[in-house]
Amino acid sequence: MRRPLVHAGWITQTLPKSLPDQIAFAYLDSDRDDSILTGLEHCVPRLAPGALLVLDDYGVF
């Protein structure tokens, strides 16, 4: 089994360059609305059927 890949850094800089064609699990941890939106824009179209997408801290200010 492959371990998950963790890409530390600003979502707008790391996410678009690092995503596979299909995603089974995505965990977006951001305290900024624009970063969450970027994450959703890039991840949602790649979600495989039955995939899980988790948002952490969204809306907590």
Structure description:
It is a single chain. With 61 residues, the chain is an alpha+beta fold. The protein has a domain at 22-56. 31% of the residues lie in helices and 28% in strands. The protein has a two-stranded parallel ribbon with strand order 1-2. α2 links the parallel β1 (23-29) and β2 (47-56). α1 (11-18) packs parallel to α2. The longest helix is centred in the middle third of the chain and has 11 residues, at 33-43. The protein starts with 10 loop residues before the first helix and ends in a 5-residue tail after the last strand. The mean pLDDT is 83.
Structural class: alpha+beta
The number of helical elements comes to 2
Helix content: 25-40%
Average predicted confidence as pLDDT:
83
General form: globular
What assembly state would you assign to the polypeptide chains in this entry? single chain
In terms of per-residue confidence, which ranges show pLDDT below 50 for 5 or more consecutive residues?
Answer: none
